[in-house]
Design goal:
heterodimer, A: Rossmann fold, six-stranded mixed β-sheet, 10 strands, B: eleven-stranded mixed β-sheet
Chain lengths: 223, 971
């Protein structure tokens, strides 16, 4: 079943002569449980695309439908609520709120919703991501890899429709990269979590089911 | 210029707001220090000038038979700067006078030093006299004589003495006033001017002039004002005229020294101005000069004589002192005095309690200012640099050495200081000038034409500059070192910057469930932020604490001191007082006294200018015998005495012999009393209302009251019958008729009602401090002996001068009344209070401003630094509404946390000052009023300020695209 559809997405920046389209007419469709990788060089528009798909940025033109809901028409408030329930975001760095512990960071989306996460579930996810013994630590006491694990845990806690990851391993060493990619792969397989990941690294991209290449704001290749 | 410096300057320019705020903070501190110093020195300079104008610039005044040789000896003394003297030449009757008072010219001669160094005379026209045949005239002379004197006029004057007893001539005091009214009385063909009999104790009331020699003078100048050096005040009989002399010995004068007249000596004295060094220890110098020991000099300086002691020889302590001085000094002086006022204001004599108190305030205030300034500057610099952590990290990663970064930090501070400090000092000087100008206008009358001196001494400005520089430098050093240590990655990551306080993992981990319940997730984040607060927030909180606690302290101090001074200097409803006196001679047939006194008062009431009034007539002479059993003494065992009356021991034969005031009031006051006690006029007709208040006291070893118990006086006052009589005095007993009359005229009244002192005090009616019975007019006139009656009236007049004039026109001198016009005092006091308030509130506002600047700076910086965090929260899915709520709560928590500490601190400070004051004051204590208003204002102000600033800075951030923020930060 189709979980995400984008139609004719365009994102324009600048004015007059400086006008340019970061995303220049992209349409795509993602099935539930798919692991999609978007690759492209810097400045190709991949981050812009991801931000729009995640509801963090609005397209200048086009539609985005996630799990049946058209998000480009929603107001900021509704969008925010939608995001915390249906979208998990993982960035390259600075994902975590520095004054919250690991545990608190993870439950944050649920807390915003006023929902309580059961101890079981929390334990489970901490365990799965291998950070159980760090649950009461603050982010500045964790390594880069551990921080990313926490981000992923937070992204997954609400079982969102899609998980969007922007260069999740860009900041990590090879061992950590391996770990993270493994985790992503696992959640995808085990929990049928739809993942869309951006990377500039083809090797990493190959972990995914599908690779979309972007250049100059357009999808040029699909593998 | 090197690249780093360029970078710094560019950065300063780019972040205009932050730079300006920082400079503002520095400016305000420097300005505040300058203003405080400037105001204190200006006020001091003004006071010194005032005193000099009023009384001359000298330190020691010597009286007695000093000669030219004495003067030379004094001038030669190494401690003496200069010697000025004044000698009374004599009196000369005025040819004509259009004033009832002025009859004479009082001619004095002064030496060169007096004109040049000592007195600050101002000439309307002409010049000062150069020889003993030239004179200058005081403005009084022109005003009161109706004659026109011109510069250049030649006057031949008959000079002599004023005497008052023809048979045994004695000199008259220069202060003796002539009584206005009737013209000269002819006795034996001679004209005699009536003299105010108060000066004369016995005998004749007439005065006459005894000429001694003639002198011709040329008028060379006319004075423009009447400074204190002029001795003849408006109401005295003389007007001053001054001439010049360079010798004491050869100056022709009337004979000054004569028994029973030390007054003439008051006008012939020597003013000694000491060198600045000697001024530091005037008493010691005086002791040295006059050859006496320091303790004795101190007694003389304080005028500490027991005037009750009269030795058998007829001498008093004062005359003995005079003898001692005369015997010890080589100048012929027989007395001296120290110019305490001048020295006090110059700062050399700190003996006065009040002055000491004022100085402690000034010191206290200065310390607060300095501490606040240090804080503010430190914070400003710290913020400015903290924001640039990333920049420094980058520089470090690019290859700048820690040393270069340190230098850079110091350079930035230097630039900020360079701009901020001079601007601040200039601004401070400007504010001082403005404030002083306002005071000048407010206090114009009080200063009698002397302007307020503006003085911001170089050392004050230098001190302000130095303290600021030092503070800036010291803060920068520490921060510079820290900046140098930042590694590139830390800076970019900005994680090191966040020093989360985590003393106890368990403790700070738990967030009370109630927070989340009440305030939601946003609130719990806000709360966590507070608990695990970063170092930067500490500066915000400390700024708020400093500002608020200082504000509360100063506020409570002002409140208490105004309250305290308000007891003595209250806002007056009345500005004039008239009192009629009791007859001194026992011509007891002055039956119309009550009527004529009241008629007098009523006439004044009828004046157009009288707006408010109240009066009473009373008698203090009635004594009552009250049986002990009728007096309330329950539960008073162990008490020593009544406060108002005599100790219990005065109860003799079971009776207390006590004075009770018998009084009647004007109709309005009486009616008010009736309404207070809830009785009608008919009910109280013929009956007395008594103030039935008594107090029992316990007295401790020091003679102070250790306990006061308020009880009623009579047990059953209503219906009680009081019988009183007037005791004959010794003079009365000379005449049997008088004694008989007094003993037979008893006062016999029944008490109809009771009223308390408190009830009266809260009304417009006069309060008496002793037991009083109040009668209606008819009963008073029937029962009270007129000869024992006196009266008093307070009124508010819209034109006090006219009222005074109108009263004297009534010609009712036989009533022996006196009029006091205290309009001037009221205005003076109100001006002073206004000025004080101006200063203090100005100070408070300044401190608040500084605090606000700081708070603004810290909060906006903090918000900026958390841009990423905010963006993150938004991206995870926090709605705008929830986000705003979080900010609101965070501001609430900050305000709360700061106020929780600040308010108790402020209260403590206020209480401490109160204690400090009371330890220096004698007499009544200054009450500590809980400054509830200040507390409420602080709470409201802080909460509002913090919330506004946070919202403003967050608003700025919010408008930025979430993505832009994340994108920009993810560089």
């Amino acid at each position: 079943m189709e979980i995400l559809r984008a139609e004719g997405l365009v994102k324009t920046y600048g004015q007059g002569e400086n006008k340019f389209n970061a995303v220049d007419g992209i349409s795509l469709s993602v099935e539930k449980g798919e692991f999609v990788a978007i690759v492209g060089a810097s400045g190709s528009g991949k981050s812009t695309l991801m931000h729009m798909l995640g509801g963090v940025d609005r397209p200048t033109q086009g539609r985005i439908i996630i799990d049946g809901t058209e998000i480009n028409r929603m107001n900021s408030n509704k969008l925010a609520i939608f995001r915390r329930r249906q979208i998990g975001l993982v960035y390259q760095f600075y994902n975590l709120i520095p004054i919250l512990t690991v545990e608190e960071n993870i439950t944050l989306p649920a807390d915003l919703d006023g929902k309580k996460i059961s101890e079981e579930k929390l334990d489970g996810i901490l365990d799965t991501l291998g950070i159980k013994n760090k649950r009461r630590n603050l982010p500045n006491e964790l390594s880069g890899g551990q921080q990313q694990r926490v981000s992923i845990a937070r992204a997954l806690i609400n079982e969102p429709a899609i998980l969007l990851a922007d260069e999740p391993t860009g900041n990590l060493d090879s061992k950590a990269t391996e770990d993270i990619m493994g985790l992503l792969k696992m959640t995808n397989k085990k929990y049928k979590q739809t993942i869309i990941m951006i990377t500039h690294n083809l090797d990493i991209a190959r972990t995914a089911d599908r690779i979309l290449t972007i250049r100059d704001g357009k999808i040029v290749e699909e593998v | 210029m090197n690249i780093m410096k360029k970078l710094t300057l560019k950065d300063l320019f780019r972040n205009k707001t932050r730079t300006i705020m920082t400079i503002l903070g520095i400016m305000l501190s420097a300005a505040l220090m300058t203003v405080v110093a400037g105001v204190v020195t200006s006020v001091q300079a003004t006071l010194v000038a005032l005193v000099i104008h009023d009384d001359g610039n000298y330190d020691i005044k010597a009286y007695g038979d000093l000669t030219d040789d004495s003067v030379r000896k004094l001038e030669a003394n190494r401690n003496v700067e200069n010697v000025s003297y004044r000698r009374l030449v004599g009196y000369s009757p005025l040819k004509s006078s259009n004033s009832e008072y002025k009859r004479y010219m009082l001619i004095s001669a002064m030496n060169k030093s007096a004109y040049e160094n000592c007195y600050s005379f101002r000439l309307e026209e002409g010049r000062f006299p150069n020889n003993s045949h030239e004179i200058i005239l005081s403005p009084d002379l022109i005003e009161y004589t109706g004659e026109t004197y011109k510069v250049g006029d030649k006057l031949t004057l008959s000079i002599g003495s004023r005497l008052y007893k023809e048979t045994d001539p004695e000199r008259l005091s220069e202060m003796a006033q002539t009584q206005d009214g009737p013209e000269a009385v002819k006795i034996n063909g001679k004209d005699y001017l009536p003299v105010n009999y108060d000066i004369i104790y016995t005998g004749d009331k007439t005065e006459f002039f005894s000429p001694e020699f003639e002198e011709t003078y040329t008028v060379v100048g006319i004075l423009s004002d009447v400074s204190g050096a002029v001795t003849c005040m408006g109401s005295s009989a003389c007007a001053d005229v001054y001439t010049y002399t360079d010798t004491i010995d050869n100056l022709k004068t009337i004979d000054l020294f004569n028994k029973n007249n030390s007054y003439a000596q008051n006008l012939s004295f020597v003013n000694i101005d000491l060198t600045e060094n000697a001024e530091r220890d005037v008493i010691g110098t005086a002791a040295e000069l006059f050859g006496i020991d320091k303790e004795f000099a101190e007694t003389v300086a304080n005028g500490d004589y027991n005037s009750d002691v009269v030795y058998d020889s007829g001498e008093t302590e004062m005359t003995k002192a005079e003898e001692k001085i005369k015997a010890s000094n080589p100048y012929g002086a027989n007395y001296f005095s120290i110019h305490n006022e001048l020295l006090r204001f110059k700062g050399f004599s700190m003996s006065e309690g009040t002055f000491k108190m004022l100085m402690s305030i000034a010191v206290f205030v200065t310390i607060i200012i300095i501490v606040s300034s240090v804080f503010i500057i430190r914070n400003s610099i710290s913020i400015s640099i903290t924001e640039k952590t990333k920049l420094y990290g980058m520089l470090s990663s690019v290859g700048a050495t820690p040393r270069q970064i340190r230098k850079n930090v110091l350079f930035e501070s230097f630039i900020l200081a360079l701009v901020g400090i001079p601007l601040g000092i200039a601004f401070g000087a400007g504010v001082t000038a403005a404030v002083l100008k306002i005071c000048d206008n407010l206090l114009y009358d009080m200063l009698e034409g002397n302007g307020i001196i503006f003085s911001v001494p170089w050392y004050a400005m230098a001190a302000a500059a130095v303290i600021s520089c030092l503070t800036i430098f010291l803060s920068s050093i520490f921060i510079a070192v820290r900046a140098g240590k930042i590694t590139a990655v830390e800076a970019i990551r900005s994680t090191k910057d966040i020093n989360i306080k985590k003393k106890n993992k368990e403790k700070s981990y738990k967030t009370p469930k109630i927070v989340t319940k009440l305030f939601g997730t946003g609130g719990s984040i806000a709360y966590k932020n507070l608990k695990r607060s970063r170092k930067q927030y500490r500066t915000t909180i400390i700024s708020i604490i400093v500002s608020v606690s200082v504000y509360i302290t100063v506020f409570s101090f002002v409140d208490s001191s105004l309250d305290y001074s308000g007891r003595y200097y209250q806002k007056l409803d009345y500005n004039m007082n008239i009192s009629t006196s009791r007859y001194n001679d026992h011509d007891i047939d002055k039956a119309d006294k009550i009527d004529s006194d009241e008629k007098f008062f009523k006439t004044v009431v009828s004046f157009k200018e009288t707006e408010k009034y109240r009066y009473f007539l009373n008698s203090y002479d009635y004594s009552f015998d009250i049986p002990e059993k009728d007096i309330y003494t329950d539960n008073t065992e162990g008490y020593d005495s009544f406060t108002k009356f005599f100790p219990l021991e005065t109860i003799q034969n079971g009776n207390l012999d006590i004075n009770i005031i018998v009084a009647m009031f004007d109709d309005d006051s009486y009616r008010e009393i009736l309404s207070i006690i809830g009785k009608s006029e008919a009910e109280m007709k013929g009956k007395a209302i008594i103030t039935n208040d008594n107090e029992f006291t316990k007295i401790n070893e020091n003679g102070d009251y250790s306990d006061i118990k308020t009880v009623p006086f009579l047990r059953n006052p209503v219906g009680y019958r009081l019988k009183g009589s007037v005791y004959p005095t010794d003079a009365d007993r000379q005449d049997e008729e008088v004694v008989k009359k007094l003993e037979n005229e008893k006062l016999d009244v029944e008490i109809g009602a009771v009223i308390t002192q408190d009830q009266i005090q809260n009304s417009r009616v006069w309060t008496f401090s002793d037991l009083t019975i109040i009668l209606d007019r008819d009963t008073f006139r029937k029962c009270v002996m007129p000869v024992t009656v006196s009266g008093e009236m307070s009124l508010y007049s819209s034109d006090t001068a006219k009222t005074e004039h109108d009263i004297s026109d009534l010609g009712l001198d036989r009533l022996g009344y006196s009029v006091i016009n205290f309009e001037e005092q009221t205005n003076r006091m109100n001006s002073i209070v206004t000025v004080l308030e101006l200063f203090v509130y100005g100070l408070i506002i300044a401190i608040a401003l500084i605090g606000l600047t700081n708070i603004f700076n810290t909060i906006t910086t903090n918000m900026n630094l958390r841009k990423k965090e905010f963006a993150m929260l938004r991206s995870i899915g926090m709605t705008g509404k929830e986000f705003r709520r979080m900010i609101r709560l965070e501001s609430f928590f900050y305000a709360f946390k700061s106020l929780i500490i600040a308010i108790p601190l402020g209260l403590l400070g206020g209480y401490a000052i109160n204690l400090l004051f009371n330890s220096n004051l004698t007499g009544e204590e200054m009450v500590f009023n809980f400054p509830i208003i200040a507390v409420l204002i602080s709470i409201a102000a802080v909460t509002l300020a913090v919330w506004l600033i946070m919202t403003y800075s967050v608003g700025k951030i919010r408008r930025q695209n979430i993505i832009e923020t994340i994108r920009n930060e993810n560089v």
